[in-house]
Amino acid sequence: MLKLLWSYLKFWWRSKNQHGVHSPFVFKLVTECFYDKTKFENYKELKQYRLALLSNKNSIDVTDLGVGSHIMKTHKRRIADMTKNAGSTLSRTQLLYRFASYFKPNSILELGSSMGIATHAMSLARPNASIISIEGCPNITEFTSNQLKSHGCSNVMLINNEFSEGIENLSQEYFDLMYIDGNHQKEATLKYFELLLEKSHNDSIMIFDDIYWSKGMTEAWDIIVSHPRVTVSIDTFFWGIVFFRKEQVKEHFIIRL
Are 199 and 167 a contacting pair, CB within 8 Å? Predict the structure, then answer.
């Protein structure tokens, strides 16, 4: 916890808002998406989805294929507790909704379905997009699949598989948006990145969640930022976002949200 606090203080010291951004592409993203204060009608559905999970006192047996939970160490876990401890916050879910609405991806890949909070947000933002979400735990996959269907997310396909194997088995050639939120370990994250590079095009976007989760995750993020195919990279503390736009000069931004 102290390490995370220290990381955040360093981030805050180096971070900028829109006034410190000189790239037109990133300035537009920050002002029209990150800092958009519009109260979208779909925000109500985002909140209702989350509240339904927080009120669910049922438990499921969880199989952790990654680093697991820093807070929850038992294999039988309550839906409400998993939502509270591992699910995206409401503000972050709203940001993901705006992000998907802003870039309008037609094909989305998610690694780590969890309770489907992020999946639901992307589905609401892009109801006509094709969304594939890979989850390592079979019981979470089954629960979340049913949960998403009950909320009308007909454009989502959940796959129960280990992430690397799941990526390699995908027949789809490219994805516009890739959201990586699971197995927060350095070597695993770098392996996913290399595999997903093969499924990225000039306008693809990758979002890595919890880049300050651990020293290893931060090291993985630094390696990803320095990759020659990455042009624009954005550190928002909880997200690391990379773009592959060849028309952009290589720049790194630390943005305060």
Answer: yes
